[in-house]
Specification:
489 residues, alpha+beta, Multidrug efflux transporter AcrB transmembrane fold, Alpha-Beta Plaits, four-stranded antiparallel sheet, two-stranded antiparallel sheet, elongated
Length: 489
């Protein structure tokens, strides 16, 4: 090119500048890919104005759920049962079973949603219990039983004088069962003692129905003398009808905060003041959102759902604890409390945290598919526990980095906290290392230790049925002025 040729005044980028820009873009893309899903979520929310609004919104929704979710003692499950009491005057137990109970059982078995039909036949009376499937509404079940009986009265013996349909629910299950036994008095006197005990217990405030089962009931034997009856103008049929009417008139009887505080103390000891405050700030959000979810899916606040929340507290703090501890560790290692370091720290533990959460969900969710009576009763545990784990994972990636960056300490404070943590670790190491070294290095100690653990596990399993069958025995002698009782397990 000659000197007279025009020269372009716009300078083209040099080869070195283009290479540097490309390298920067590659590093940015590589860093973004290395963050994983957890790092990308943290990068979006750590400095976003939406994060505090989202935090307040979740708290508000959770408080609203706490206020409007119904409360009761036990889960609201429907296990309808219908008792059918019938009287057949003059019939033996075999006749009652053959002529009245068996036809009634066949009719009840033909109803929809019937799971089992039970019956007990006695002289002149019987009890048929129709148990419907779990979840069946009690009102339609009672109506179906009553209508079936009324529409088939032509199939029952004409002497069957009484039908009584009584619905039973899960709330009618006895909460206390007392067994009376004696080697000194007979079954008739033992039944009388049971009736006296029942009358005494009914005087206790807020007690419900009670009943006595077993024992020999009082019976009156009548030996008619036909000659004297004829003198009074009374026939045997009239006498039998009078006795039958008297029997018909005879009646029968019928019967969170503590867990959160513990987590707070442990977090304060293990990870320091600022990380503990961050973890404790996440716990109410997760619990309140779980309570709101309970009301949204139709659960109530009861003993089982509260147990699910208490059970979840010990697990849901894991995600936030792992994230905040790694953020503070990376700040200390890099020597700067930078936002980019916090995002990278979240990305480092993101995938293992997600995997740990999925593992817990895989262990909890199968419990939600249990059928029968225990299914709906225990279902709040896997459902609410899983919901709490999902919300805790969300809070760990969204709220924990934001709170950690807002409450970030100075580097000097991090170093002091690290020194305290090392002292705590040294104290734990002095007690733990000698024990684990002996178990690792000495076979003569290792194998007996393992065998001892297996034996303890077997003994614990063998003790479970005994604990489940614990009972309280009382002696009839206590009613004579002497207190005598025995507790067995």
């Amino acid at each position: 090119m000659s000197p007279e040729d025009p020269v372009d005044t716009e300078l083209a980028p040099s080869h070195n500048d283009a290479t540097a820009n490309a390298s920067a873009r590659d590093r940015s893309a590589t860093a973004a890919r290395g963050r994983g899903i957890a790092g990308r979520i943290a990068a979006f929310f750590i400095n976003s104005p939406l994060t505090p609004l989202l935090l307040l919104a979740t708290l508000g929704i959770g408080i609203l759920g706490l206020l409007i979710t119904p409360r009761q003692e036990d889960p609201d499950i429907s296990v309808p049962m219908v008792d059918i009491k019938l009287r057949y005057p003059g019939a033996s137990s075999g006749q009652v079973a053959r002529l009245a109970v068996e036809p009634l059982e066949r009719l009840m078995s033909e109803l929809s949603d019937v799971e089992h039909v039970y019956s007990v036949s006695r002289r002149e009376e019987a009890l048929v219990t129709v148990r419907f499937e779990v979840g069946t509404a009690i009102e339609p079940a009672v109506v179906a039983v009553h209508d079936t009986i009324e529409s088939n009265l032509d199939k029952v013996p004409p002497d069957l004088t009484e039908w009584l349909v009584q619905p039973k629910t899960i709330d009618d299950v006895p909460v206390l069962t007392l067994t009376l036994w004696s080697e000194e008095i007979d079954d008739a006197r033992l039944r009388m003692l049971g009736l006296q005990l029942l009358q005494t217990l009914k005087q206790v405030e807020n007690t419900g129905n009670g009943f006595v089962v077993g024992g020999r009931q009082h019976e009156i034997g009548i030996e008619p003398q036909p000659e004297q009856l004829r003198g009074y103008g009374i026939s045997l049929d009239q006498l039998a009808e009078t006795v039958r009417g008297a029997n018909a008139g005879r009646g029968t009887g019928s019967v969170e905060q503590g867990a959160t505080a513990a987590v707070a103390v442990l977090s304060l000891i293990a990870i320091g003041v600022r990380p503990a405050l961050i973890v404790l700030a996440v716990i109410p959000v997760v619990i309140l959102m779980t309570v709101w979810s309970a009301g949204a899916v139709g659960f109530t606040i009861n003993r089982v759902s509260l147990f699910a929340l208490i059970f979840a507290i010990g697990i849901l703090v894991d995600d936030a604890t792992v994230v905040v501890e790694n953020i503070f560790r990376r700040w200390l290692a890099d020597g700067a409390t930078a936002k980019a370091v916090a995002i990278a720290a979240v990305g480092e533990v993101g995938n293992p945290t997600i995997l740990a959460t999925l593992t817990v969900l895989a262990a909890l969710l199968p419990m939600g598919f249990v059928t029968g009576m225990m299914g709906p009763y225990m279902r709040p545990i896997p459902i609410l526990g899983s919901v709490a784990m999902v919300f805790s994972l969300f809070a760990a990636f969204v709220f924990t980095p934001w709170l950690a960056y807002r409450l970030r300490p100075k580097l000097a404070a991090l170093e002091r906290s690290a020194k305290r943590e090392r002292r705590l670790q040294d104290w734990i190491d002095r007690g733990y290392r000698p024990l684990i070294e002996v178990l690792i290095e000495q076979r003569a100690v290792r194998w007996p230790f393992l065998v001892g653990i297996l034996i303890a596990f077997i003994v614990a399993v063998m003790m479970l049925p005994l604990q489940a069958c614990a009972r309280w025995d009382t002696s009839p002698q206590a009613w004579r002025g002497r207190s005598a009782h025995r507790s067995t397990a």
